[in-house]
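Give me the 3D structure for META domain-containing protein.
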Amino acid sequence: MLRLVGRWRVTVRSRGMLGGPDGGTDGPGEVTPGLPEDDEDRTAELTFDGDGQVFGSGGVNRVRGTWSIEQDTLRFGPMVSTLMAGPATAMRQEAELLRLLRGPLGLRTPAGDAETTSDPLRGPDGAPEGAAVPTVELVAADGDRLVLERLADDEEREHGRAFV
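Predicted structure for META domain-containing protein (164 residues):
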């Protein structure tokens, strides 16, 4: 069982990230969402609050909205974001992220199995120190997906960022 409440690093894996020197495929249906070296620090992050609010960064702009979950389907309410410009690759990544957040997303394990949540209104699951970072995939109807990796408490403190 998964608890979504907490902070997650988000990787966009979609056909929209293909093409050019900054993207490619690992094999059939696998996308390598590479960013040029100067854009590597433009990581998308989302924080799910227990009150149904979600906020973070698309990589360039701050984002905020609402979320709800029913069984293995995650839905986001209208999302708002700031309107700053950034490098083309980072902007394309952010546009794909926002596009995927508009539709229902199936919760899946990295192996592709359906995932359900437990007590989504409570805090992170408190995995033992040194345990593997939980990962979940959010899969859209078209097969494009977002990969979420939970940020460990130490990493959250290290970033020291607050998003509004």
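The chain has a mean pLDDT of 76. Let me know if you want a second pass.
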